[in-house]
Amino acid sequence: MQIGSLVRRAALHFGDAPCLSEGGRTISFREFDAETDRLGNALLDAGLVPGDRVGVLLPNSIECLVAYYALAKSGLVRVSMNTRETIENHRYKIEDSGSRGIIHSGVSDLGVEIEIGPDALIVMIRDGRAEACAIDRALDAPLRLGYTGGTTGKSKAVTLTTRGELAELTAFLTDLVPDIGQGDTFLHAAPVAHASGAFFLPALARGARSLIMGKFNPAEFLTLAESEKASLTFLVPTMLAMIMEEPELEKSKLNFRRIAYGASPISPSLLQRAEKRFGRVFAQSYGQAESPMVITCLKPQDHDRIGSCGRPFTMVDVAIFDDDDKPLQPGEKGEIVCSGPQTMARYWNRPEQTAEVFRNGWLHTGDIGWMDRDGFFYILDRKNDMLISGGYNVYPGEVEDVLLAFPGVVEAAVIGLPDERWGDRVHAVVSGRPGLDAAALLDHSRASLANYKCPKGIEIWPELPKSSANKILRHYKCPKGIEIWPELPKSSANKILRRTIRDRVISVGKAGAETREEVIS
């Protein structure tokens, strides 16, 4: 089975039904098939050959998805890029992947042999050869290159295959969105270049319409969801938190049957508030770049398991290993490992790092967690984010959950600052509603946490800085001359990056105290 075959089959089965909508424009399944054929043929006619890597640097749009699936049909290898990242990030990915071409929305001077800008793209989609574009590739040959978040060093390309893509599709339709079908509208509010794009193929295969937001805004999300009668969506927790703070939320008449979430941990307090408003419609997907979106799934009916990331997807094996790669018993803490057809084939041009992460047939996720006696898994934190304070292990995620349960706190990041006495001094940076009291928050932390886990200091910022994937940046380094960042840094997946925040706090020190509130115990 080829990915292009799924597009062709959807055109046959669903014909003139709406496939993709964006900004008042809609194309049918038949039109999507035709446009991807024409663009795929035009790319090959431009001098690209099957196996060549091609970057796609487009905003959320119909054209972005046409480009993705034209590449799949033409045997070319898509290189995932994100418009929210910097020029330096773009150049690094182009060089690292050896891309011969790039499809972009107006960015110039990227040093690529074949550059296709927005005007040329429209012409190619319109005027390319209309015959079927169907270049078969081996199931285990590269289909696309995704990039890790780069939160623990230089971002690495993961080699994803047709076999893995079909396994991800099967997992979604079996466990995550099993009842998606004709008549449904899936609202793509998060970047299609990241996790939200994974939901397009399941929607396509089942005849559901995909509705694309150009850029996320909580008020516009509510308006669009109501007017277009969206029944499914995917959100990262930061986006959900913003929606829950939106004044118009209570007035909105929404019809969501399934809200998938993932890409970063969610606080139990946020989830409880969201379930009270939306009902039992939430489903969590836990994965990572090396196993995209598919490791465990927490279904709506299992959300009484507070803090769990769910049970393994049907097609995936998951276990907890110790540092010697020995399996641990229920309740014991160790590294989460997984195995299955959905994992990457390898890191691109990094055989040593591939061997390090794949050991004894298991992908080592770098996440610390445990499994209960019923087979539900729980993530404590990233292995590399764990703090050691006074000889005790402190998992930032556990402390952040306590902070997020305090009324008025919207975002939280817990970091370790160098300390001669403690090793890592636990320090918290939060953002929240006006009037948030740092001293009261510290008292709340003392009442809820063991002494060694309790933050020794708390700062309140207007917003946590995030990367282009919307991850909170714990390790974002503050440039000289900048004292206060306007928001907490997040990655392109909307995750708050702790290391970024840690570097910024150390760099800034006490500077900027007049524009932030800080309490030290």
Kindly summarize this structure in a few lines.
The chain is of the alpha/beta class and 521 residues long. The protein is built from 14 helices and 29 strands. Among the domains are: 1-137, Rossmann fold, CATH 3.40.50; 386-520, GMP Synthetase, Chain A, domain 3 (2-Layer Sandwich), CATH 3.30.300.
Helices and strands in order:
Blueprint: H1 3-14, E1 18-22, E2 25-28, H2 29-45, E3 53-57, H3 62-73, E4 77-80, H4 87-97, E5 101-104, E6 114-116, H5 118-127, E7 142-147, E8 157-161, H6 162-176, E9 185-188, H7 200-206, E10 209-212, H8 218-227, E11 232-235, H9 237-244, E12 258-262, H10 268-278, E13 282-288, E14 291-298, E15 308-312, E16 317-321, E17 334-339, E18 346-347, H11 351-357, E19 358-359, E20 362-371, E21 377-382, E22 387-389, E23 392-394, H12 396-404, E24 409-419, E25 423-432, H13 438-448, E26 457-460, E27 471-474, E28 495-497, H14 498-508, E29 517-520
Parallel strand pairs: 1-10, 3-4, 3-5, 4-7, 5-6, 9-10, 9-11, 11-12, 12-13, 25-26, 27-28
Antiparallel strand pairs: 1-2, 7-8, 8-18, 13-14, 14-15, 15-21, 16-17, 17-20, 19-20, 20-21, 22-23, 24-25, 26-29
Helix pairs in contact: 1-2, 1-3, 1-7, 2-3, 2-5
